[in-house]
Design a protein that fits this description.
Elements lengths: L3 E2 L21 E5 L9 E9 L11 E4 L4 E7 L1
């Protein structure tokens, strides 16, 4: 079960990791769309990388093992 909470930073990461830095199985913190601009991040393991491009200003979109979908803010 992912950890959900406000323990990571004060706002969305201005420099999220690029797609080339992410791999299936990585532990990450994501921000789900409904939580943009908040401290409500979700911790989990990458199951699938959804963004086709090399980068995205808000972060690369991924699906976690628990089914959550969001943009990667930090790798752990």
């Amino acid at each position: 079960m992912p950890f959900r909470g406000g323990t990571k930073g004060g706002s969305d990461n201005p420099h999220p990791p690029a797609r080339s830095e992410l791999h299936v199985g990585d532990a990450v913190w994501i921000i789900e769309k409904e939580h943009y601009g908040t401290k409500n991040y979700t911790q989990g393991i990458v199951k699938q990388i959804l963004t086709p491009g090399a980068s995205h200003t808000r972060g690369i979109k991924v699906r976690l093992m628990d089914g959550s979908v969001g943009r990667v803010q930090w790798k752990m």
